[in-house]
Write a structure and sequence with these properties.
Elements: H1 2-11, E1 17-21, H2 26-42, E2 45-52, H3 59-72, E3 76-81, H4 92-110, E4 114-116, H5 121-134, H6 138-141, E5 147-149, E6 154-156, H7 164-173, H8 190-205, H9 209-238, E7 239-240, E8 243-245, H10 246-249, H11 254-269, H12 278-289, E9 295-297, E10 302-307, E11 310-315, E12 324-325, E13 329-332, E14 336-341, E15 351-354, E16 364-367, E17 373-374, E18 383-384, H13 385-391, H14 396-399, E19 403-406, E20 412-415, E21 419-420, E22 433-439
Parallel strand pairs: 1-2, 1-4, 2-3, 4-6
Antiparallel strand pairs: 5-6, 7-8, 8-11, 9-10, 10-11, 12-16, 13-14, 14-22, 15-22, 16-19, 17-18, 19-20, 20-21
Helix pairs in contact: 2-7, 5-8, 5-9, 9-11, 11-12
């Protein structure tokens, strides 16, 4: 393990705290042994994090095995059992998410410097090949980097120098115990099929093929770092509050456009794994070139949405639905504020004067609904509320939550700050109700 030890010697400093993902399998036991050999040299605090995925009967015994190893070596042991999965069906993606959430929670708990996992050279080959087949980005094609820096963590993988067989040889020569996860033989999982069918073929061509893939990965990483510096210089000029200025973005090369979108998704995910495939990226670029205000699904959690000259990448949210009776003061969604006034000389669309004898009280405040129309003051006929929002170039997300005021018969009285109905009175006319509307910082 000379390469891994040298790598860690260049990385570690005295008193570092490390969270290690320790399954008890050969890979993680190898990394555990390497870290234990450096523990006293650097006065390391090692926290071993074991996850029971709760899909095999051997899992409980493996947890005891790992706990005993930790006790013998006087390192901390943390255990997490996944009690259930969505729809009661095991999912690699869901298991990974829960596993890493556990790891990150331990990083916070122990104020750790590093999270370390035992990914090795064969994992690198499998990952790159899977992403080539599936389609990805340059960042995806580089596979598994030695170091991934997140906002609050640094994920390190010191074993990428070695093949699986290298690790087994090391363990056997040092009489290090480990457990075997038989589910790794199950070809139901995509990675296992690549491992059992494609990897042996590549190794026949070159038993050290993982080192060739490592060189490939490093080459792509250097290219990726250069592109990141270009994106860094452009990002803040193009992206603001999770929205992309399409007019500015269109001036960039198509590849830089994709990288700006990718960077925004990374920022939202707070994770360096991009689960957006090539087809979805192309769909996002189509949104940029399509003037229609539409949205597309990117994953279970995210959507891309165009609204006029803005492109949003955002977390899916439930439709906003509310209905309030207005009395003297009301605040909606912490930003839409209505106040009953005794008097006011303001004539803007942010103040309305009403004669209670002409409408049916109480007043109701809710978001627009399909078919809502308003008889706009000083205009003949009615106009759809939806069309008024579009005319004012209101963002579609805001349209779905924006408050409108109706009387109890369902007549739209006011679109606050935008349009008043024929029921609005001038200062010199008869009225007995004055309402002022404030949106966030507007006065």
């Amino acid at each position: 393990m000379k390469e891994a030890t040298s790598f860690l010697n260049n990385l570690l400093k005295n008193g570092d705290t490390i969270v290690l993902g320790l399954s008890g399998g050969p890979d993680s036991m190898c990394l555990f042994h390497v870290l234990i050999s450096l523990k006293d040299k650097y006065n390391l605090k090692i926290i071993c994090a074991h996850v029971n995925h709760n899909v095999r009967p051997e899992s409980e015994r493996e947890a005891i095995f790992v706990e005993d190893i930790c006790l013998k070596n006087k390192v901390a042991y943390e255990y997490f059992k996944i009690d259930s999965y969505e729809n009661n069906k095991f999912s690699e993606q869901e298991a990974r998410k829960k596993r890493y959430n556990f790891f990150y929670s331990l990083m916070d708990k122990y104020k750790a410097n590093y999270l370390m996992t035992a990914h090795h050279g064969d994992d690198l080959v499998e990952t790159i090949m899977m992403r080539i087949v599936r389609g990805s980005t340059i960042k995806g094609y580089l596979g598994i980097p030695f170091v991934t820096k997140g906002t609050n963590y640094c994920l390190v993988r010191p074993l990428l120098f070695y093949s699986k067989q290298d690790i087994i040889n090391y363990l056997d020569s040092n009489n290090i115990e480990y457990v075997i996860d038989k589910s790794n033989e199950n070809e139901l999982w995509t990675r296992n099929r690549f491992r059992k069918q494609m990897l042996p073929f590549l190794k026949k061509e070159d038993k050290n093929v993982h080192l060739r893939f490592l060189e490939y990965s490093k080459e792509l990483e250097m290219a990726n770092d250069y592109i990141n510096r270009v994106v860094d210089n452009k990002f803040n000029n193009i992206v603001n509050n999770n929205s992309i200025d399409i007019n500015i973005l269109k001036n960039e090369d198509e590849y830089i456009q994709k990288r700006i979108v990718e960077r925004l998704i990374e920022t939202l995910q707070k994770d360096n794994i991009i689960n957006i495939n090539k087809e979805q990226f192309n769909n996002i670029i189509n949104l940029i070139n399509n003037k229609k205000n539409v949205s597309i699904n990117l994953s279970d959690d995210f959507i891309a949405r165009r609204s006029y000259d803005k492109l949003f990448i955002e977390v899916k949210k439930d439709i906003v639905n509310y209905r309030f009776i207005f009395n003297e003061e009301l605040t909606i969604l912490n930003k839409y504020i209505f106040k009953l006034l005794d008097n006011s000389k303001e004539k803007s669309n942010y103040v309305i004067r009403l004669d209670s004898s002409e409408i049916k009280l109480p007043l109701i405040i809710r978001p627009k609904e399909d078919g809502d129309k308003i008889k706009v003051k000083n205009l003949s006929g009615s106009k759809k509320v939806k069309d008024i929002f579009i005319d004012n170039k209101m963002d579609i997300k805001k349209r779905n939550e924006y408050p409108i005021v109706l009387d109890s018969s369902g007549t739209v009285i006011w679109i606050p700050g935008i349009k008043k109905s024929i029921f609005d009175k001038e200062i010199n006319e008869k009225y007995d109700i004055i309402i002022k509307y404030v949106e966030e910082n507007h006065e």
